[in-house]
Amino acid sequence: MTESNFDQFGLDRQIVAGVKAMGYTTPTPIQQQAIPVVLEGRDVLGIAQTGTGKTAAFMLPILQRLMKGPRGTVRALVLAPTRELADQTYDVTRLLGQHTRTRAVTVYGGVSKLRQVEALRQGAEVVIACPGRLLDILADRDIDLARVEVLVLDEADRMCDMGFLPDIKRILQVLPRHRQTLFFAATMPDEIRKLADSILHNPATVQVGIVAPAATVSHAFYPVEAHLKSKLLAALMQATAMGRVLVFTRTKHRASKVARELGKLGHRVAALQGNMSQNARQAALDGFREGKFDVLVATDIASRGIDVTEISHVINYDMPDTVDAYIHRIGRTGRAAETGEACTFLTPEDEEMTRAVERVLPEKVERRWLEGFDYDAPPEPKGLPRPLGSRQRQPGHAPHVGHGERAQRREEAPRVGGRATNPERRGR
Ligand code: AMP
């Protein structure tokens, strides 16, 4: 197998150091396609969702461009629909560019304008902005966009959905006509296609088709605080009839821990993670395939070799890092004519990835709360480990996954997906 890595792009050493610091080893498909053409200076029409690695796909070549040329003037402008996406893009830019002396500033509504203007006065090469506040600052003449060399429209379709099209057009008027434009959208309805056609010159189209997951899989999200995940897993497995179950965790350590905890509760369970010897991994896989274990707790990387049919449930104990990984994970269930269920635990921090996952699924995913489960239990005091699931349900309580009143109440509770609404979105 040819190992593909980031050296192939000829990026500056300082930028590659940032890539390493982020822990990226292999470019994602959108990065593989987009980085070379963006480096050539071409306009790009990128059809890709959040979760595909598109931020680095445009930001790495931008950082490469910024290594040469003047500092302290705005040379790259990224327009984003929401402050969450702007913040996320800012974080990636700062980390990837940590050895390059590049300065990035975010500009969006709902927070102090003065602070943003002061940050701009100190000089930045990259501005990541939501359209509303940017126009506001432009009107005050507190930003100069006359030397912008690259414009990125990120989630352009969502910006249009949110009514930002007139704002975008006004911003385009103050940008130099001679520039590179990178246009990203997850979907291409007519209005977006027209906008792209009107601003891109001879663009290279890059597209990552996220294959829609099998229709035989039903999806459910279980909102839960992070400290209650183990208990919820134990309770869910007790309350639901499951066949073969594959549980995914983000880290190797957690895979082992969750497997241990389930084992203590009497489940026939094995872990599958990268720290295990090849023999131990094979034994876990064989045991799972042959029915010696009903539950396998795996990390994404370790799970690559799993080819076991008849998996009834995939449980995402941790939300995966990318939409691709979600599709991959749940591709393990609902194979052929069988049906399967994908249950994903959602903590409030998973909100952005949740939206990204929902965008590739045909319908909004049902939020479920397990009846009888104590969602308000406080974290265990440190040093007093309590066996997993020891307190999860009143004896004799019928196991039942409810979507009734309690679910309704939880839907309204600010703690579940309860971030403040985006002020850029309000009143527009
Ligand atoms: P994005 O689509 O840009 O929001 O990226 C989604 C997630 O994938 C982020 O958490 C990135 O840090 C991560 N990511 C991006 N590129 C890579 C890569 N080449 N390898 C591993 N993770 C990546």
The count of β-strands is 16
What oligomeric state best describes the polypeptide chains here?
Answer: single chain
Structural class based on helices, strands and sheet pairing: alpha/beta
CATH hierarchy: architecture of the largest domain: 3-Layer(aba) Sandwich
Bound molecules: adenosine monophosphate
Strand arrangement in the largest pleated sheet:
3-4-2-5-6-1-7
Q: How confident overall, as mean pLDDT? A: 84
Shape: elongated
Q: Regions with pLDDT < 50 over 5+ consecutive residues?
A: 389-423
Compute the number of helices: 15
Could you characterize the architecture of this molecule?
The protein is α/β, with parallel strands linked by helices. Helix content is 36%, strand content 16%. It has 15 helices and 16 strands. It has a seven-stranded parallel beta sheet, sandwiched between helices. A seven-stranded parallel beta sheet has the order 10-11-9-12-13-8-14, sandwiched between helices. The protein has a two-stranded antiparallel ribbon with strand order 15-16. α13 (323-330) links the parallel β12 (311-316) and β13. α6 (131-139) packs across α8. 41% of the residues are buried. The model is unreliable at 389-423 (pLDDT under 50).
